[in-house]
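W.,

You were right to be curious about this one. When I first looked at the sequence I had no strong expectations either way, so I just let the prediction run and decided to look at it fresh. Below is the sequence, 209 residues in total, followed by the output.
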Amino acid sequence: MQTLIGKKAPSFKASAVVNGNQIVEGFSLDQFVGKQEVVFFFYPLDFTFVCPTELIAFQDKLAEFEARNVAVVGCSVDSEFSHFAWLNTPRNKGGIEGVTYPLVADLSKTISENFGVLASEYDYDAEGNAVSTGAPVAYRGLFLIDKQGVVRHSVINDLPLGRNVDEAIRMVDALHHFEQNGEVCPANWSKGEEAMQATAEGVAEYLSK
């Protein structure tokens, strides 16, 4: 699999549920180009177990993303109708009621495949029929896309491994710091901490402290 880092994020138009209660056609990340960064994340399936903990965790931190002018968008291989039903199911019954950021429907699995997160692969049997091997869902991929539509950070987890939403915020802060100050962010850097110049002298000065 080739990395998308430094490349334009794959373009798509698909159905999505926005604000938790409205199905829209032709949803695209292109609407954010020139305006906002986007944290675009994939999860395997609606009405599962690890997934609601992640989607609710992103909702709990949504104000922090919005304060940084970052849009959060989720995606799975479910239909928009499945998304709608899950969004309108109470949390104490396994739902994600209260999630307001968009959820994209990738029923064809082409978006997942183009972003390199589809867990299954297609091959042909002896009769020439296309067959799928592996789980036909998306891994837990996350992509930080800048205002120019370029992927600047990505991480892909296997299905059982839930993500750390605070790490996504940290990467947004690191990107903003670099863009605003021209300094690079060392290991374990957090907003408000000292960064460094991307030179031998800058590294030496940072490590000497």
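Here's what jumped out at me. DSSP finds six helices and nine strands in the chain. And, maybe more interesting for your project: The chain has two domains: 14-161, 164-209.

Coffee later to discuss?

I.
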